[in-house]
Amino acid sequence: MKLKLIIFSVLFLCNKVNAQNFDNFKEKDPFSYSGNVTIGTSFYNAEGRENRRNPFAYYISASPTISIYEIDIPISFTYRDQQGSVSNPFQRFTINPSYKWIKLSVGNTSLDLSPYTLSGQYIKGAAIELTPENFRIKAAYGELENPLAQIDTLLEGPLLLPTYKRKAAAVSIGYGSMNNYIDLIFFKAKDDVKASDIPAINQNLIKPEENIVVGTSFAVSPINQLYIKANVGASAHTANQESASEFNYTDSNNSLGRLENAFTVNLSSKLQFAGNASINYKFKKIGIGFDYKRVDPLYKSLGTYYFQEDYQNFTMTLNFSALNNKVRFRGSAGIQENNLSKLRSSTRKRKIFNGNLTLMPSRTFTTSLRMANFTSDKTPVLNTLNDSIQFTQTTETYSITPVYSILGDNINSTFIAMVNYQKLVDLGLSFTEARLVDNYIANLSYSMYLKATKLAITTSLLGNRNMIAGNENSRLGATVTASKKFFDNKLSVSTNVGFTRNFINKIIDGNTITGNIGLRYNVKRTISIGFNTNILHRKSDIESYRELRGTAKVSYQFNSKK
Fold it and tell me: What pTM value is reported for the model?
């Protein structure tokens, strides 16, 4: 009875809804459906450590998608070990109907207004885009998704911190074509202290913020192949709404005081500016240009991710292709300077460069080189370092990747070598300032595919070393992977074996052995059977254990359309 109630309830819930254009509404199919159903089981066994999973489990999952006049309504459902769960209907819920130059979004919406105002962040709410003729108007309102607030160290482990509910509104008004336009942008976000679960929030690390940003983006092409572009943003940001409110306005910050009626102004408030401008000219296969970028100290917009701040760049850009595209280059070089407010004890000037060179002397040989000691990417990522996950941003990278292929009548072979160095910034909130991470990766692999037997084999030698907070962690190992198809490609078999020796501060920290076997058999075009098993054997002076896990499943795909 419990299972029936769960199945009945899920039919009224969806995690994402997409609507298409209604211009040809009468010509669309009124109703269709598609999706898949999977029934499976899993097993798990551990020796030398406590079980982290149930020894035996089973599950039923279904992902049907119902389409009504091409309005897609995906539904997901999972039943596992006598515990039912349905997808959160508002986790990823989106409706995007459009008619001519009117587009409406309800649910999880994303607007990319400019890099200094709203870019890359999702808003749970509603948005509208109007594009009559050369006009464009965009507006959005709802709850802004906070970036993950995370502590991550080897001692504490990963911990996601609850944050305040953040309300946001954005408006953009623009006019023009692709190469000649101007946009005026307004964005506001504020953490809702009253509506948030205050006891669950670590108020020593997470503070209620508020932000107003105004900006503009414009481009002009006065003559053919000459392009001038610019983005400018001004951000009034309060780092803590509950900070002391006494504020003495002077001539230098009087502009911030004028916002007091519409914005929380206190001792944690700052008004900062950021922007970039470029001029580029292209002729034939060569392009040259000049870029200028400036970000004031402590500049921040809650509509974007992490910002590198307190710097200005003067760079020249160059891109070209030669020898029938056998040589391609794209890069920039210039000078970077910090201490824009002259409050630091010293000012640093350095030469910066960012270049990508691709060499293709023949159809069978390609080499890619990447060199960069600065980055314009404002989006941090989660990287696995030292068996833990760090919230990091890449600031420097140097890599070379030659690829050599041999194409034969019966055998195809590929040799790939890769050497990569990265300097990362650990953005974990458990530190008073960001930590630097040096990460070295090397990989050498050989792949072979036998056409007659449909056998593929790949062998790899790999090495990894990262240095963080005075600790050095290294890994050296090798892997062998093989896959083959049988019975007119109905049966696929794959296997993988790996060995890694681990080092901590150049002292051996044991070995890790991994293994995998996978089978997949297509009974029919719509029915498949799969089996997968993995083994992990870890041996060190601190801990030695073995884990065995596997899954078996049957999947059925259905579609009302032929």
Answer: 0.71
